[in-house]
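Two folds, back to back.
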Amino acid sequence: MTAIGLVPKLCRGNMAILSQKLALIDALLHKYDTKVAGEMFRSICPIVGASIGQHFRHSLDHLEIAASAATDGTISKIHYDLRARGGASESDMNEASNRIAKLSDTLETLCQDYTFEVDSPNNAPEEMIHGSRSVMANFMLTGDGVEEELTSTIGRELGFAAHHAIHHMALIKIIALNHAELTMDDLPADFGRAPSTVNHDRTLR
């Protein structure tokens, strides 16, 4: 029988967010010519103090780090705050699209790697079912440059990457509507909304 563990579910969740990012780029290109769309992508929204591209780049940084740890079994430590800032993907939509496509391919490969054949679910390795391989996740909690190390798993970090990205998508939504002058109809359904909020609203219908 084929068993699908937690990691593919987490990868699919992250891939859905990546798809929303591509949809936003398409919406900008549909509303504006290529030059103006690019300007909207990289221009700073005074409400948020950042651009769509900057929020894209930041959340992609985190997902790439988590995905790398899940892909490479030799990675035992994750450093989210020791990363390059800026780069072409936060100012160039084509670069951002290419980066998203490459990351989507990485996540798709992970889905396949963590989908396996077993005689019985009880025979499946724990690490494959739950993404429970241990990693140490490092964060800066203050501005003094000192990292704090937390015990985690690759499954937990892929979940964190999705949760983190959703909150950035909420900020991107503010920029898209108030600065890039898109409308709700231009954006995918539930763009920038937490799954728990979507579920809550569904239960009220």
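---
second:
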Amino acid sequence: ICFDPNGNVFVGDEENNAVRMISSQGDVRTIVGLREAQRAADERNLSGSYGKRVSHLSPEEEAARNNPSLLSEEAYNNIRESFGYLINDVREKSLVNGPRGVAWTPDHSLVIADSYNHCVRKLCPDGMVVTLAGSHERTEEERRGHPGFLDGKGTHARFYSPSDVAVSPRGNIVVADTTNNAIRKVAVDGMIA
């Protein structure tokens, strides 16, 4: 859990494969993760008497939700087949797998411990989600990062279920590399030790 300078709260929602933002007004929305799958979880867990109505669907998605025939078969299959995997893209299309810890950076990015993808991800100010450290190589059958323990630069390094991240004022990232029983550092230059 972390805060941005505007008082918004960010939470890694591990079980729903999403990163959520709770605005300073109390509105909850999914900022990274498969939104259609999150919608059902949101309505089941986060609406009603427990807080404000959760809204994270675009007008097009809202129309498709209310009239499923508007969702093409290809779009439906992409949603169904890609849930919870490692995809770098704009935040609306990016997928995470068991995100846990999150941290705000000096450059106004959000760092994510993407536990089951065995990597550290970053939501950049321009809306792109990128893999900073750890494996993003995968086969078509796997679609997940590879676990391991290896120092190196960027995606050449390996983590095993990182569970939390913290960011120093200089921008270095400290990672709790859980299954490796290690605390690791991702330096500003991308080197992992």
